[in-house]
């Protein structure tokens, strides 16, 4: 069953520009994962420090493979998460 993720990041203001520069490569690498169906990143118009990630994977195993990937470990875990004020991850089952 497909797994959808809606992830919200609120970046520390001093880190926003640096983190935005990391996202293009993250998107490219993630979209090339075998189990990835969709990977889009959005920036709030009202608060540029708020980022929404919309991710879709073929199944739960593909989600775990993404989290274990070298690019996720290096970019997200090491370079992004330490500079977030808020990180919310919602894993959803697609119904329709």
Automatic annotation (TrEMBL):
InterPro entries xrefs: ABM_dom, AI-2_Isomerase_LsrG, Dimeric_a/b-barrel
Domain ABM per the UniProt entry, residue ranges: 3-92
Keywords attached to this entry: Monooxygenase, Oxidoreductase
Gene Ontology MF terms: monooxygenase activity
Name of the protein described by the UniProt record: Antibiotic biosynthesis monooxygenase
Species the sequence originates in: Pedobacter antarcticus 4BY
């Amino acid at each position: 069953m497909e797994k959808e993720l809606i992830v919200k990041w609120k970046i520390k203001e001093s880190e926003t520009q640096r983190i935005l520069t990391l996202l293009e490569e993250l998107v490219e690498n993630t979209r090339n994962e075998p189990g990835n169906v969709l990977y889009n990143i959005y920036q709030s118009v009202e608060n540029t420090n708020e980022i929404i990630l919309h991710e879709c994977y073929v199944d739960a195993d593909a989600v775990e493979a993404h989290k274990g990937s070298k690019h996720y470990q290096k970019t997200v875990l090491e370079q992004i998460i330490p500079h977030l004020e808020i990180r919310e991850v919602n894993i959803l089952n697609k119904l329709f």
